[in-house]
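Category: protein sequence paired with discrete backbone structure
Discipline: computational structural biology
Format: plain text, a pair of labelled lines
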Amino acid sequence: VSLGFVEGLNNKIRVIQRRADGLRDEEYLRLKILTCMLKEI
């Protein structure tokens, strides 16, 4: 796995976390992150 791919995933996770600020449902956030990763793979 190249570092560029990993950095891209980390960036997407940070963006999702920023957009989810204020949401209390951690399971929903986890599912959003997993969905984002599945699209890349």
Remarks:
- The CA atoms of residues 9 and 36 lie 8 Å apart.
- The radius of gyration is 11 Å.
- Residues 3-40 form one domain.
- The chain has one domain: 3-40.
